[in-house]
What does this fold into?
Amino acid sequence: MTSALDRRRLTGWAVLISVLAILGYASRAAGGKPDKDVAYQYVTAASGTIQYGIILALVLTIARPDWRRLLALRPPTSYGRALGTAFVVLVAVYLTSFVVSTFSDPGREQGLTPNGWDSHRAVQFAVNFAVFTVVAPVVEELTFRGLGYSLLAPLGQTAAILWVGIAFGLAHGLVEGLPILLVFGAGLALLRARTDSVYPGMVVHATFNAIALIASVAT
It folds into this structure.
């Protein structure tokens, strides 16, 4: 262990993640799979922005006043290590996605990637694209690889990476896509551990989301 556990903050963070997981799975069980065109609806962007705003406010409250340290708001210790680790993470995630997709349809389960381009709703798509590739990566990285990893780090690097990956996966409330999220969440935690910064994870997360959205409308 490198330092003592901050049990008060860790409890607050664990409660937040537990609530997200419960709400996610309950919503999925009650409503089933989302509509195929949610990325073309203004309400998706609006509800997502509100949700992420609430999560960010809670994360900042838990971390206060030590935001810079707990959220890892500092430059990476090595840009080369960041680039190399990011490449490994993306390869691992895409390989996992390929395997999972042979048995299920994780993209359809989450429902955020449309089945094609609708030029009549380009503005709606652009608004959602901004939320998925900017708002979501920033808030989720601050929540998991920022605050979460910092609070779990006293357990050891490996344990922190694994627990952050599990928390990230469960918080999304998915079943078919859970293996992909576990690998992605743990991979981004590894990137955080190897760079001591939350910023590389934001870039990789945003890139992954952007590629998924662009690929969905380009086919």
In short: The two ends are 49 Å apart (CA to CA). The chain has a mean pLDDT of 94.
